[in-house]
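Review form for a predicted model. The reviewer records the input and the model, then writes brief findings.
Reviewer: anonymous (R2)
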Amino acid sequence: MDFRAQSRIVYAIWATLGVAIIWALIDGRWPVAFVAAVTLVVSCLPALAVERLDIKLPVSFMVAIVAFTFATIFLGEAFDFYGRYWWWDLVLHFSSAIGFGLLGFLLVFMLFEGDRYAAPPWAIAFLSLCVAVTIGAVWEIFEFTMDRSFRLNMQKSGLLDTMGDLIMDLVGGALAAFAGFVYLKGKAPGGVRALFDDFIRLNSGFYAKYRSRVRRGRRK
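Model under review:
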C-alpha cells in the first residue's frame, strides 16, 4: 500500500488510533486498546484489497472509508457513541450504504468493461443495490460475531437494531443505485458526475469501452 498517496485526514485518524493503542496499553485499558487495534487493521484492509486487485481509489473514497471505520468501531465502541446518541448507528448505516452503493455501481460497471450496452442501466443499478445491501448484511454478521466473541454490544437492542440497520442499508443503497442510473443516462448532477468520473479516470484501463464511447459522443 502506498502510504504517501493518502490524505492528511487518513494520516490523522491512523495516528489517533496509534496513540490510543499506546495510551490504553499503558493505562491498562485492554478493551480500548483492542478496539483501537481492530479499527486500525480494518481501516487499512480496503487499501490493501484494491492494491491486490490493481484498482486505484480516489482520495475522497479512502477518506470516507477510514472515517467510517473510525466512527463506527472506535467512537461507537470505545467511547460508546451508540449509547450516547441514538441516531449514531442509523446515520452510519445510511451513509455507508450510499458509499458502498456508489462503489458497488463502479465495480459492477467495471465488470461490463464500462460498456453500457452490455447491460441496461437499470440492471447495473440494481446489481449495485445488491452489493450495498450484501455488505450491510455482512456487517451485521460481523457485529453479531464481535458481540458473541468479545462481549461487546454492537447490536444494542438485537433484532430491532439489526432491522433498522438493514432498512437504512436498503434506503442508502437505493439512493446510490439511482445516482448510478442517472449517471449512465447522462443526467447526473455535477457533483455526482465528478465523483464517478474521478474513479473512472484513475482506473481508465477497466473502462476502455465506456471512455471510447464518450469520446466519440463528444466529437459528434
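Findings: The CA atoms of residues 43 and 65 lie 7 Å apart.
Further findings: The two ends are 41 Å apart (CA to CA).
Recommendation: see findings above.
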